[in-house]
Predict the structure.
Amino acid sequence: MKKLIYFIGIVFLLCSCTKEVQIDIPGYEEKIVIDGNIETGQPPIVLISKSNDIYSPTDLNSYLNSFIKGAIVTVSNGTTTIQLDQICTDDLPPGTEQIAADLFGISVDELSNFHLCAYTSFNPVIWGEIGKNYTLTVTYNGKTYTSSTYINQPTSLDSVYWKAETSYPDYGYSYARLTDNPSTYDAYLWQVKRINIQSDGKPKDNIFTKTFNPVFDDEFVNGLSFNFFYENPMSFDDSTVQSQYKGLYHKGDSVVIKFSKMNQDVYNYFEKKYTQLATQGNPFATPINIVSNISGGALGVWAGYSPSFDTLYCQ
């Protein structure tokens, strides 16, 4: 009887502590999204689009229709200011197809399949140079958005090497050794492509691809020399690769590694972005706000990169 009374008391206590909580979720507000970058020896490229409501359609057409045309976009390096040209993949000047393919990150064969528009300049006076600051200004619908980014001195990897897995002697990850500068803040981006020549005379990969978590900084490795490895991101979408070999390079692969430096605000943007992508759908993950480095109320990033390149032979 005492246990029953105690149990009933606990139930009443718990019931008395309940409270209905109402959460006022703000409505959707459309914003401009700016995705721009400039790197050493390359023209600036800026994609401008509109943000989408989380409940809006997510098909290819709705994505392509979100891109904005007719904006005024300028880039300045402190001494020269150039207004960027609007170019679209299905209306390119003859001879610029390969350049456009590299800028958009798709193959030449795919260019005509999509109506993608971006802003860039083929005038080399505004192309990326080490040690220069680049200011981006976007004007659209009476509003102006600005940002600036700096192209750092690049850092080269000490060495790169391939090491076969014990269980799969013909497959392995790509490894590298890096010595970080102790006197500066450094953040890095890792991209790769295979240049094996196939039977059709073309390289295996047309463009550089990022790994699943391609950015890191020197918060825990400042001034240290250390080894690290990355997976083969191209293998995950390749239906010819068996599941146990996903993420690995095959013996005989030739891999170009593009290792780029970036500013801290650019790193903060991408670190939050890739963390959000990795934890999406996880009910226990901490909510993440991706902080833009663009002023004026736009989302997105204006990023400067200074890459160094290495060729890894998987032998």
